[in-house]
Amino acid sequence: MGVITIARGTLGAATQLGARLAEVLGCRAVSREEVYEAAKPYGIDETGLGDMSFIDQRPPSFWHPFSDKRQRYLACFQAALMDLALSGDLVYVGHLAHLLLSGYRRVLRVRLAAPDAYRVETLVKARGMTEAQAIAYIRDVDERRLRWSQFLYGVDWRAPDLYDLVLNPEKLRLDTMTDAVVTIARSIEMQPTDFDREQLRNLRLVAVSRAALLRSPRTRGLEVTIEADATSGHVRVYGVAPSVGIVGVDTWERDLRASLVDVPGVAAIEIVGERAPPGLTD
Known about the structure:
Blueprint: E1 3-7, H1 13-25, E2 28-31, H2 32-38, H3 70-86, E3 90-94, E4 107-112, H4 116-127, H5 131-153, E5 165-167, H6 174-185, H7 194-215, E6 224-229, E7 234-241, H8 245-260, E8 268-275
Parallel strand pairs: 1-3, 1-4, 2-3, 4-5, 7-8
Antiparallel strand pairs: 6-7
Helix pairs in contact: 1-6, 3-7, 4-5
């Protein structure tokens, strides 16, 4: 089946659908909080972003001190999410994490979207809000969700091309939505091949390597591209070496190797660097 991701909204339908899908498909359902816990060995706590929720507060501005830790947070979360995906079929209930799996074909991206009038009515009944309070709450959460998606991923979460299937819980019962998702999840298009599993292992090793580079003070500011072959453990790093003489280049390569050498699954490290033209790097 691969992975099913369900974008979580202001109501509880996504959580209910995720639990039902896991039961029907016989797989695990995980939340953002569970992935965060699994990402702690990669250093996600060090980013300071773990306790920040779009429900509770606004994201930092791009010039806020936290903004330089955004990449570290995403790298750690991505590594943990791929660890879970490799452990078996998975239903993830959260917010836009499917973007971190964009290199993996077997991801079914689901979003639940209901009209505001239905959302307001549901909140009034379920939480005892007044209509005015429910309207204000929905607007506030939607704005925070948009700002978080722009801060973390640089996208508008409402864009339809981010999803494969959009379901309206106002019109569709939980059983109907479950049947629709299960039908697609069991289709030939969603069945991972050996090639897909190999690609996911490669992507996971890239993510783990990136998290290691971003964790080290000596390498987190370096702009590099990483390729990995999980079968052989060969990791190749492309980048532009600083133009400060042979000592600087040697230090650059040594720092990269030192950050990657103890990463589980890495057996060989190849550094492919070009010397930067004078004046472009220091």
